[in-house]
Design a protein that fits this description.
Blueprint: H1 26-29, H2 38-53, H3 56-163, H4 171-183, H5 187-200, H6 208-223, H7 227-240, H8 245-257, H9 261-274, H10 279-291, H11 295-307, H12 312-323, H13 330-343
Helix pairs in contact: 2-3, 4-5, 4-11, 6-7, 7-8, 8-9, 9-10, 10-11, 11-13, 12-13
Length: 346
């Protein structure tokens, strides 16, 4: 029990409080005892009443009732605790589920970000690959174009080298070189090309007797104005002796008589390929170019003929004489005048 004045616990039913010294009334002390918890108080009171007032049978019944009540109370407490525990667990599980859901959402967001970053990375790589491929394509095209240009330039240089007087590969190329050299007033190249043409000539004398016999027959036919028969005989004579310049010139003159300019041009090319220094051949070639309205080529042919003339002064006088002949066509006279003017600039 406790002191009613200061509440100090009184040991061994002390009458005087050892703390405050108040004398305690034992009768009142019984009413100042510490109140038990509600359940314990009910149980103790019930037990005391049963023991003090009830007979044994009633005490037993009440005791059973009290035990049953205690059990029911305990069951209720346990049930409440169970439901409270379930509610706590449910709340805990709900919170945990919310945390897990939030974590899952964060992971999904993180994966989405990673996927976006991966997609962006792949797109950037593809874009870079496309850019590199395009640059490579442009570079390869430029290299191919440059290689093509260089190859074309190389071919042009090779062709130009072939056109040089000392490198012309055949009589036609050497002849073209000679005509173009005159345009540039490069007579030294004309001489070189002529030497190159002479070295390329493979024509050798044949059956001179048979050729001359046929040639005489052709001359007779030409005098009788049977030019086509004469042309046939002159060509047979050249087959027998392709190196005879006299027969070649007889053929050219007869072709001009028949106005077969293209045939005459071919015959003159053949003469020049055998001997490129024949002035008469170049003068006749100028006549072909004049008839074809190729004035520059005609002038150049006359300049080359002058260049190879043994008597250049005498050849120039012959050119001037042609310009004064009324029977010569105006176009040919103009060509001779142009050639004389060019010769005087040499």
């Amino acid at each position: 029990m406790n002191c009613h004045q200061c509440g100090t616990e009184l040991l061994n039913n002390e009458v005087i409080c050892s703390n405050c010294g108040v004398t305690t009334d034992l009768e009142k002390i019984a009413t100042i005892v510490e109140q038990p918890t509600p359940l314990e108080a009910v149980i103790e009171e019930s037990q005391e009443e049963i023991q003090a007032e009830e007979p044994p049978l009633k005490n037993k019944r009440k005791k059973l009732i009290l035990i049953a009540g205690s059990v029911l109370l305990l069951v209720a407490l346990l049930g409440g605790s169970y439901f409270a525990w379930n509610a706590y667990q449910h709340k805990k599980e709900t919170a945990l589920a919310a945390v897990l859901k939030l974590q899952q959402e964060k992971e999904e967001q993180a994966q989405a970000v990673i996927a976006q970053e991966e997609e962006a990375r792949l797109a950037a790589e593809n874009e870079e690959a496309d850019r590199v491929a395009e640059e490579t394509r442009v570079f390869e095209e430029s290299v191919a174009l440059e290689q093509k240009r260089l190859l074309q330039k190389k071919k042009q240089l090779a062709e130009a080298k072939k056109a040089l007087p000392e490198n012309c590969v055949d009589q036609q190329a050497c002849m073209s070189s000679m005509l173009s050299s005159v345009t540039k007033l490069d007579l030294n190249s004309v001489e070189i090309a002529a030497s190159r043409m002479s070295s390329l000539s493979k024509v050798r004398p044949g059956d001179i007797g048979a050729a001359w016999n046929l040639n005489q027959q052709g001359i007779a036919e030409a005098k009788d104005k049977n030019n086509l028969q004469a042309i046939k005989l002159f060509r047979q004579a050249l087959n027998a002796d392709p190196a005879s310049m006299a027969i070649h010139f007889n053929l050219v003159d007869t072709l001009f008589e028949e106005n077969l300019i293209d045939e005459a041009h071919k015959a003159l090319i053949q003469i020049i390929s055998i001997n490129p220094r024949l002035t008469y051949a170049w003068r006749q070639l100028a006549r072909c170019y004049a008839d074809k309205n190729q004035s520059e080529m005609a002038v150049n042919s006359l300049v080359i003929g002058y260049q190879f003339a043994p008597d250049k002064h005498g050849m120039l006088l012959q050119y001037e004489n042609v310009t004064q002949q009324s029977q010569v066509g105006i176009n040919l006279r103009i060509i001779y005048l142009s050639a004389i003017k060019k010769i005087r600039t040499l």
